[in-house]
Amino acid sequence: MKPRYFVSSITLVLAVVAVALGIFGLYAAESEVQSKPGEGVGQNQMSQRTPKEEKSSTFRYLVAKEPLAPGEVPSRDSFVEIVSENEISQAIKSSELPNDKPIARALASGGLVTSDLFESATALQRVITDGFRAMALPMDEVDSIGGLLQPGDFVDVFAAFSGGRDAEPSVVHLLESVKVLAVRGVVNPNTDTDENDRRRNTTLVLEVADADAPRLALAASEATLMYSATKPPVADDREDHSNTVALGTSPGNPLFLSELSPFQNKSATTRGQGRQNPGREVKVFEGSNARSVYVQ
């Protein structure tokens, strides 16, 4: 009987050890399961923070889809949102666009929306483009294309030189596709103005590139300016900020009167033929008197 009890004791001990190992294994498995969800939550939090961090490092601004005129109230659909990694000075953020507020100056297609776009400005400040200047020039009925010229039109500028003793008259195609900002002091042709004031104000205001302003000022002081209406340029962005007609090209070459009038050539030739060489002058002194003799 004693061997039976001995075997039963060994079996009982083994059973207790097996139960203990099972409990330990179950506890270890639960601990591992609990640790894995914690790691997943941490990864999700990191993945959620990453877009925010990326979003905070970028700036969103607006550019115009098409040209906008002063006084126009743009909608959100008038602009396209752009993303920049760097902050742009004076640019309005996409989320800070004013609602139902008219713009104070003209905005070209692709132009960036800045804070001064909605600030009050003078009539010229509202219409003049960056990189250009407003220049006033004298005007008469002929210069105004018979009174039909209006703000917003485009003209070519010609400079006619009267010539002098040693220079014959000529004309130069000076500038092309120059925008008219104002005619007789009026920026908006639909504005009600006093007719007498308009008649007294015989000026024409052109939008001239910064680089062309000295050229036009010199021509205005030394020549007679004339204007020819033309169609707007195909691309009105004018990135090069210049209206200069390049010298050496056909439009920019000066035209002389002798090239235009055959009579001018003939008269010049006739004057040249009629002027004959009188020969060498020799002075002869006879007492107190002197006379000149020409010797061939």
From TrEMBL:
Residues 124-226 form the Flp pilus assembly protein RcpC/CpaB domain. It holds the Pfam family RcpC. InterPro entries: Pilus_assmbl_Flp-typ_CpaB, RcpC_dom. Residues 243-252 have a biased composition (Polar residues). Residues 35-56, 232-259 are annotated as: Disordered. This is Pilus assembly protein CpaB.
